[in-house]
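step: validate -> pass
step: tokenize input -> pass
step: predict -> running
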Amino acid sequence: MSSDATTAIPTLPFAEAAGPAPEPETPLHGLGASLPQADARAKAEGTFPYASDLWAEGLLWAALLRSPHAHARIVSIDTSAAEAMPGVRAVVTAADVPGAATYGRQVADRPVFADGLVRHHGEAIAAIAADHPDTARLATAAILVEYELLEPVTDPEKAFAAEPLHPDGNLIRHIPLSFGDPEATGEIVVEGLYRVGRQDPAPIGAEAGLAVPRPDGGVELYTASTDPHTDRDLAAACFGLAPDQVKVVVTGVPGATGDRDDPGFQIPLGLLALRTGCPVKLTATREESFLGHAHRHPTLLRYRHHADADGRLVKVEAQILLDAGAYADSSSESLAAAVAFACGPYVVPHAFVEGWAVRTNNPPSGHVRGEGAMQVCAAYEAQMDKLAGRLGVDPAELRMRNVLATGDLLPTGQTVTCPAPVAELLAAVRDFRLPALPKDTPEEDWLLPGGPEGAGEPGAVRRGVGYALGMVHMLGAEGTDEVSTATVRVLDGVATVICSAVDTGSGFSTLARQIVQETLGVDEVHVAPVDTDQPPAGAATHGRHTWVSGGAVERAAKMVRTQLLQPLAHKFGMSTELLQISDGKITSYDGVLSTTVAEEMDGKELWATAQCRPHPTEPLDESGQGDAFVGLAFCAIRAVVDVDIELGAVRVVEMAVAQDVGRVLNPAQLATRIEAGVTQGVGAALTENLRTARGLVRHPDLTGYALPTSLDAPDIHIVKLVEERDVVAPFGAKPASAVPVVTSPAAVAAAVRAATGRPVNRLPIRPQAAVAATP
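step: predict -> pass
step: emit ->
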């Protein structure tokens, strides 16, 4: 079947889809082993302590009053009725914030509590602490707020001319990228207008936390933070305290697809604890979770691609508009990624891209896995399908003629110095065997779009095959100082790793154990709980803990290794480089020395602290040029979908994935990360869109926001993992989970286009867009 074929499903035997070749045997410990996570059993049995499980003597319960309006002026706030209620211990508003009134990870533009003006639906107005959670919630309803409703600005295109929504104005950042000759043209020109919706991180466990006042006038915050030191510093500034008076203790993180923790949730919690002198706990409702934390940026994209008669790209012109919502958050960083990757992993001699991030009265946008890169991938891959259609070329072949390779230039002028095996990835998914077609029989009707209760007819189902290539950057960008510190201590043959890198489900704590096992030959390795008494390790984003924190652990472990081997080397008159540790044994190159790690460790305490800091980057200049990224990772996906062309129902049958991973450190964990990323991307492609009407969130719950379930997850085949090590990265490994999230929505959209003949220019794909075009 050709990749752009459209075929009615006939009655055929259903054959097993081909899977990847059997994997070679892997070691039982150390790097390359499928070591299970230490907390896997506790999580499976429900005994793992999450923030919502915490308790303290004399505990009070908190609740937040949130704005029911998207844009309004606060005329007055009367808290007297709430304060008079039995059981209410404290009420705090903007007037009660003792320190900085605003906060923000990159721009401090977001108020702790709305002060005079409400800028988005769900913005915090006040917080209450009470003896019982029901009392706290009832007290929020007793607060009388008089609003003067204002016209919300919800269309980001209108934000440029609208009255300023914030003292800093409506424009957060503008990047005009210019690369090559603006007069260059191609023989074939295709244009498109694309929209990407508002995807929510939708953590299974909603935000929760516990604040405990300290005798020194400080406070401890127990939360599922993914960047505890930044959260500590932001909170301390708002509390009017020194950073060392605030301690953030990281509790169990119930999964995270980015910075899932919301400082605007933690800061009111700490204020209440400081005001009452009692421990205070806050557990968000699902509605509060949807309203409070950041979402993926809704994006409007206009594209024009120029190509020659052979389908080789000549020039790409694009305009990218990110809806940041009410506050800046990480929009500047997201815009940089969107503009830099606007052409995708393709060689483009001339590129002219303008990008804007603007404030509106819509829900806040921020970091969600693959931010910026996912939105542009959906657009540039749609453009590649249009070019293939105009030229009458197979979509995979057209992509193959243009793929990026090591040594090529990005439109930012940066040379791709890391491995970029894009052609190899595309060939792997292109050549992978297509799945068989399902039988047209009642017992197999669950395989059709809509499942057994669907109203469609099997004869109306068409199969489509689509391709997409995606890329993401590793670590922070544009001059971000990436540094992490780790300590490795060994006592009585047991190793402990101390590092404030938060394991958000990425498996860092497992990787740290493997690194120490590999380096020191010690089987029993523990990773200490994370808090801000430890040196900072940075945010758990962009695969940085695999690289930076993993690199710090490796360096510390190697320093301990040197301490262990030096006495032996001195005794035998050789250097430590001539000794090796393997399977718990220490041997010399000539076989003269042979002992065990356990014997040499007996009674000793060895420890070392080390840092890892990658090479520096630079901000993009006024033309969008600069070496802004430490490294890149790539992915190719082929999607196979079945579409009911009368009802517009879509079922993703299979996703074939080939990925550039640098080095496989934990095979099972890597496969899980890739499969999870693909599934999250399928949700963005088909169902996930936090809908708003005039800035008000509609149905902020898990019935109105449709997450993909196990029944929606397709067969995912990891057909190839390219292990071409990046020489500047510790272990040579690359981040694994973001790039399939970026690539899979574009692949699903391409497959739906192939099945229906429709352009599919919006994500998530609406049923009316999946109804086949009239002949």
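step: describe -> The two ends are 22 Å apart (CA to CA).
step: cleanup -> pass
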